[in-house]
């Protein structure tokens, strides 16, 4: 393949994906521009992992969309350093937050919506409120628990929150592990019968929710499919598969 043809092929390939493919070279080395772009992406990913979620601002934005109170909670991971070194502490509420949930009405409800920083506060700050703005109108007729925002949370913290609120289902919106092309990807985890001890095999996941990935409308449509099917079949996880014929693009 000639150098010109190879260059043309690389340009067409890069137009199809944000992945680092078809990179050029100078002699045996990477080009300076490509190297600097890689270093910048790596820095953005590291910043996303270490950033602290602005829970007050996020709770205010979600409250404006939902029209209800938003409960702010914290896990037993006291700070970001502890959170990254002790994943187990990010799966349990601290005493104050557990007491806050216990003080709420402990009746039964259909669904608990929980938002947590996870491994990318940036993803949550950018994408959680716009997704909820699309999702909440589709939940008319569902009995919802107060929306919760959890700082220093892992996916499994939704099990404790959902169980405390008496929810049949919970949806955890959480920042996913940043990649070198996406430091702001939001994930949504759906769990039937949330309770401590649930495994990842008992959940369904929708990934890469962001402006450059899965749109908010598409994600809301997929969430409603899983929620409706989970309530009908009383399960989530590997036994509940997405049927593309049942999901219409939003």
The pLDDT mean sits at: 88
Into which percent range does the helicity of residues fall?
25-40%
The CATH superfamily label reads Ethanolamine ammonia-lyase light chain (EutC)
Structure annotation, total helices:
8
Q: What is the number of domains?
A: 1
Radius of gyration: 20 Å
Q: Give the terminus-to-terminus CA distance.
A: 43 Å
Shape-level CATH architecture: 3-Layer(aba) Sandwich
CATH class: Alpha Beta
Molecular structure report:
The chain is α/β, with parallel strands linked by helices and 250 residues long. The chain has one domain: Rossmann fold, CATH 3.40.50. 40% of the residues lie in helices and 18% in strands. It is built from 8 helices and 8 strands; from the N terminus they run H-E-E-H-H-E-H-H-E-H-E-H-E-E-E-H. A 6-stranded mixed sheet has the order 3-5-4-6-7-8, sandwiched between helices. A two-stranded antiparallel ribbon has the order 1-2. The C terminus is likely disordered.
Describe the SSE topology:
Blueprint: H1 3-14, E1 25-26, E2 29-30, H2 32-50, H3 55-66, E3 70-74, H4 80-85, H5 95-103, E4 109-116, H6 121-135, E5 147-151, H7 157-164, E6 167-175, E7 186-192, E8 203-209, H8 216-233
Parallel strand pairs: 3-5, 4-5, 4-6
Antiparallel strand pairs: 1-2, 6-7, 7-8
In short:
The chain is α/β, with parallel strands linked by helices and 250 residues long. It has eight helices and eight strands.
Summary keywords:
250 residues; alpha/beta; Rossmann fold; six-stranded mixed sheet; two-stranded antiparallel ribbon; 8 strands; globular; disordered C terminus
């Amino acid at each position: 393949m000639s150098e010109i043809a190879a260059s043309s092929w690389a340009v067409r390939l890069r137009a199809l994906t944000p992945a680092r493919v078809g990179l050029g070279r100078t002699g045996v080395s990477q080009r300076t521009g490509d190297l600097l772009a890689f270093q910048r992406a790596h820095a953005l990913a590291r910043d996303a992992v270490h950033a602290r979620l602005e829970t007050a601002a996020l709770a205010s934005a979600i409250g404006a969309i939902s029209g209800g109170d938003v409960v702010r909670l914290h896990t037993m991971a006291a700070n970001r350093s502890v959170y990254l070194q002790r994943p187990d502490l990010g799966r349990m509420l601290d005493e104050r937050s557990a007491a806050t949930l216990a003080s709420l009405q402990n009746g039964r409800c259909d669904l608990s919506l929980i938002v947590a920083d996870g491994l990318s506060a940036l993803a949550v700050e950018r994408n959680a409120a716009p997704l909820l703005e699309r999702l909440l109108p589709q939940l008319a007729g569902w009995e919802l628990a107060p929306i919760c925002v959890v700082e220093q949370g892992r996916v499994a913290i939704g099990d404790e929150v959902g169980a405390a609120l008496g929810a049949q289902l919970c949806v955890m919106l959480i920042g996913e592990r940043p990649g070198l092309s996406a430091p702001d990807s939001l994930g949504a985890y759906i769990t039937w019968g949330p309770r401590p001890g649930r495994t990842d095999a008992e959940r369904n996941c929708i990934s890469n929710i962001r402006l450059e990935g899965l749109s908010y409308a598409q994600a809301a449509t997929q969430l409603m499919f899983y929620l409706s099917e989970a309530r009908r079949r009383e399960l989530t996880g590997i036994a509940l598969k997405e049927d593309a014929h049942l999901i219409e693009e939003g």
